[in-house]
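WARN retry 2 of 3 for item q-0093 after timeout on previous attempt; input resubmitted unchanged.
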Amino acid sequence: MENGTVENRVCSTESVNGSRDVWSCKNSDSSSADHLVIMVHGILGSNTDWKFGAEQFVRSLRDKVFVHCSEKNMLRLTLDGVDVMGNRLAEEVLEVIQRQPNLKKISFVAHSVGGLVARYAIGRLYRPPKKENVEDLTEGTSRDNLKATIGGLEPMNFITVATPHLGSRGNKQVPFLFGVAAFEKAANFVIHLIFKRTGRHLFMNDDDEGKPPLLKRMIEDYGDCFFMSALRIFKRRVAYSNVGYDHIVGWRTSSIRRNTELPKWEDYINKEYPHIVYEECCKACDTEQSELISADDSFDKLEEELVTGLSRVSWEKVDASFHTCRQRFAAHSVIQVYFMPDEVRACIVTCGGLCPGINTVIREIVCGLNYMYGVNDVLGIMGGYRGFYSKNTINLTPKVVNDIHKRGGTFLCTSRGGQDTNKIVDNIQDRRINQVYIIGGDGTHRGAALIYKEVEKRGLQVAVAGIPKTIDNDIAVIDKSFGFDTAVEEAQRAINAAHVEVESVENGVGIVKLMGRYSGFIAMFATLASRDVDCCLIPESPFYLEGPGGLFEFIEQRIKENGHMIIVIAEGAGQDHLAQAMQAADERDASGNRLLLDVGLWLSQKVKDHFTKVKKMEINMKYIDPTYMIRAIPSNASDNIYCTLLAQSAVHGAMAGYTGFTVGPVNSRHAYIPIARVTEVQNTVKVTDRMWARLLASTNQPSFLNSSEMLPETV
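OK item q-0093 returned
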């Protein structure tokens, strides 16, 4: 079963087990491409590492290439060993070839350890010529049978990017060990504890049944694996390497060079590709190592054998340096960026109600784009979605947003509604905006989903990223939304104030109304955190007032026991009964949210009337509504950190070419989620779960499950 997408005439499918195929759309048919490109990720990587690269291949070579991003060795499977992964990759390549019978050529592009895996795989996929020489050619026999193949296809390009061809053992091959002999020696003994069998292969301390290290076996044809024969038949072999700032794979091992062969690159100039600092075409060399070099104490015998063996085929060596880039310290891992920084024009918009942390998210998006990627062109859309077509914008720089996280509200102002999708996308197109960051709740995300669909329909290269904002924590899929922790913390102040008030008078009853239109998370968590609350009422758990087990009975009981009582109620609790009692119409705001009546005031009056008129009992009612105070404060330390993670995750996703997504933690792991998914359902308190059971145990309040007494005062 596969999910397919079409974007800018580039088709892609992703299977349930994670593999990704990308090809040029021609009537949604992949049959026109005859060149298979296999893209292999590195250690602990996944098929999405090459998403951008795959799409660029297809855009540049329309109708010519069919790109497959390997999936058989993702994440922890990359620790199983180069040989095991190589066998899996070989099987995967044959499966792709079988699915696409029109293929004639094959190329490999591999990153890091993936380059070693690809070298092993081609050794398994090598098919020798069916005829020994041309003299055996008879009538009816194709000349293709005289050529060696890779899985039956003509081998074209074998490209590695930052691949440790000479392993990672000693001699400064792993830069983060600083070339300290003691560190390198220690790493040799513990690497298998971290990277398992793959680590042994990289440090060449594997000893499979007395065989030489695997990397040494791979510089010749060994057993039924034709490693060098396979590598030799590719028309081109290219090794890309980082001259510096690659703290995982050293320059020598990725460029297959000895110390004495490392070039002086500082004066090399490439105007077209400024990060390319040296290029070299090395012819095949069959000379024995003793004739090639003099003794080099910094290069041990085993590594010399690897250099000599791999030098028996020609290589194009391309050396890159990112020393002028802001993201240079991630030179090994950040192998693809969809947008070039100087081409990015980003915009940020905030919609819906206020929430602690909005300004922090704005600040971190601006600073993340600038500090991490060097993006300087960021616009702030003022006043919500309407700001797009009212052309009300402000230029955002790190200096402009430097201290806005210390303020509540939103620096960009906000509004509800105004989702004229065509006008918004027209404006995005007119202003040449190619990254849109939308901060808002479920209504805002519904609008973002429409914007994404329209952008996709027009074939625009625009990344649409959402950052979920709802103080109620009612957005589905993600673990929690930003501002929630701050709201719970600030709610404690209101509850504490109510507790002081009711403790100071006779028969004091305090009612604190908190946010929670459809979900009672703030009320529930604030109650659990306070321990001063006697009863918590939320939209998900209906309650009734009169009769056995009702709220009035519980209030009377608590007043007799303690002399006072605190009730926390979510704003959405009891709305159906309240609307019926007041004969109110079902009105909605510009975002489509139901307009709520003040349940706090209604409940205060109901409790007061019951005890003064029915029970003839004097009570002191204290009603506190801190909702707007809570919404308007700056975020606390926990939410500031969380907002930073969300903002930077959105920036990384957009810069990598993802679009139509929102960000957030799912099961404690940050993920990119299709925007439509977070608006399908609302996140609500499940009264059958443990958290609600813990609250009931803490307050000892009634469960309000006695339905026979729920009418006419059911709420």
